[in-house]
Each structure stands twice: as C-alpha cells, then as structure tokens.
Amino acid sequence: MSLNESDTQTHCENIRKCARARNKIVILCEGKFQHFNKNPSPQTYRKMEEMPDANFYKACVPKWWRQHRPEFFICGDRKDVLNIFFTLLKLHHQPNDVSFLNPDKLFAIVDLDIQKANICSSYNFDDTEKIFRDLYNELKVNQSTSFLHRIWVTGLIHKEAYFLTPDIQPIFENHSNLPHYNNHCLRLEQIYMHMIGEICQDIDLQNNWQSASQRIQHCSYLNFDEIENFKESWNFTYQNTGDELKKKQMILALLTIVKSKKYWENVKPPDDWTGGNERKFREQLSLKIGEFYSCQSSTTENHIPFFFRTLYDIVYKS
Questions:
Q1: C-alpha distances in angstroms, 132 versus 33, 142, 240?
Q2: Beta strand pairing status for 180-181 and 184-185?
Q3: Which of 53, 112, 236, 278 is most buried, judging by how many CB atoms fall within 10 Å of its CB?
Q4: Domain segments of the chain: what residues?
Q5: Nearest CA to 77 among 1, 183, 163?
Q6: Per-residue pLDDT for the chain (318 aa), expressed as one digit of tens each?
C-alpha cells in the first residue's frame, strides 16, 4: 500500500532535516518502514538505512568511493519513491527552514517490474518503461544517455534478480552456510528452469507480454509471438546450445521479465543454521552479494557499479 499524503509530507521533511544528507548524494530506494514521527531521532533514520533494500545498495557502493559516500533512504513502494522524489524537489523551491538536502545531489532507483509506473509530467520521461528503454540497450547501460537520469530503474526486473545472476553462483558455493533451494544445495540453474517452467502462470506477465518482451528483443533467436512460444523456444535453445555466452544472455533476458522475488524468498538456510530466521539468512547473503558488486568494474554490463560511477561523475566531476 502506498503512503498517504500526510505520511509522504512527513517523510520528506524528515529527509530534508536529516544531517546525514549534508554534502552527500542522497539516493531514494524502495523498502517498507513504519516511522512517520515528525521529530525522529537520528537513530531512527540510521536504522532505516539498515533495512534490506537500502542495506543492499549501501553494500554495493564501490570500494574506491571512500569519502562522501552516498546516503540511502527507503521510501515505501515504487510509487512512493517517485512521489517522494518530486515532492522533495517541490519543497526545495518553497520558503523553508533547515534543509540539508541538495536537490542537485538527489537520485532515486526503483525496480523495473512488469508494469510501468507513470512519472511526474515535469520529468524527461513519462514512465519507468521509457526510462528503461533510454537507459539500457541490449541489457547494457547506455553510456551516452546515463548522465541524463536522476531516476534510475533496474536493468533486471527486480533488485532481487541481481541476487540470481550466473556470476553469483560462487558466492553461494563458498558461503560458510550453504544456501538451499527446494531442499538441495542451491544451484541457480534449477531456479532458471523453474522460472521458465512457470512463466505461463504469471497473469501479470501475460497481460503485459508485448511491452515486457520488447525489453529482450535482442535475443532474436527466440520466439516472442506469444508467451507459450517464448517458453518453448527458450527451453529448446538453452538445452541445445553449447555457447555459454549465449546461455548467459538468455538467463539475463529471463531475469528481465520474470518476477524474481518469490524465487529468492525460497532460498533457505541449511537445517543446522542457528543464526536466526530465514529472512535474516537471506539478508546476510544479500550483503555478501552487495560486497561482490562493490568490487566489480563499472562497465556497461555491470548495471549497479555503473550506476554508482555515473552518480559520482555527475556530482563530483561535472
């Protein structure tokens, strides 16, 4: 459920008055929270940065970024993030009291998802799908336009999709407590086969097939006429190609259109794990994954590292 007008206003005022925003890039991201006090303590907003969504992106900040590292604020669902982004910009142009927020250092990142989210008419792009099409090309960041974007959408469907890319498999294998999926040690290929096997059951994807499939048209060897044909062609091609790069391209295409959250939530700790509940286990894994991304080069194939490099260059090198 999205925030009401009063809670949105309160949250915006709290962000503006938060001293952690002083001289920093501020990044708004998705994430549930319940704190709408008009005078929150510094500890309240510090805890918000430790919530799973913000905590993951914080862990992804490149190792080379040592000073004035960005600050993250969770803002509810995707609609809330967008609403708060534009509300903060409006408040800046009104007579105000103390505000530590510099609007030139304000950014947002939201999930691509299946359905598009509309954007305020004052922005350069009408909706999240148009942002995606301008920001990415064949699942690589479009370097020539990236500096135009203050609102970013993920190149894969959800933040959680970045937990399931082929490059992440060694993290699971080397973890001190081996993650499990369907009562077996986690092999990501098993998740991919479940994704393609269940793809026709997703009514949301079926209803938005034309727009969603447009994202991955560069996989010209697949059949996009109908979702059933896509499933068959994906299965056949994946099983019959020996080209590992092609397989990876197909997996990333799948992670661009198939909802990944439910598969990530089926990742479990081993039976002898004593560190808390399943959610806590996945949170710890996500931080390991964030650390992995923090060490990756900022090439156009690496969406998250490129995102941070772009923000740094916009603010500190322009």
A1: 27, 10, 31
A2: antiparallel
A3: 112
A4: 5-153+296-316, 161-274
A5: 1
A6: 578 888 999 999 999 999 999 989 999 999 987 655 555 555 555 555 555 578 999 999 999 999 999 999 999 999 999 999 999 999 887 766 678 999 999 999 999 999 999 998 889 999 999 999 999 999 999 999 999 999 999 999 999 999 999 999 999 999 989 999 999 999 999 999 999 999 999 999 999 999 999 999 999 999 999 999 999 999 999 999 999 999 999 999 999 999 999 999 999 999 888 887 999 999 999 999 999 999 999 999 999 999 999 999 999 987
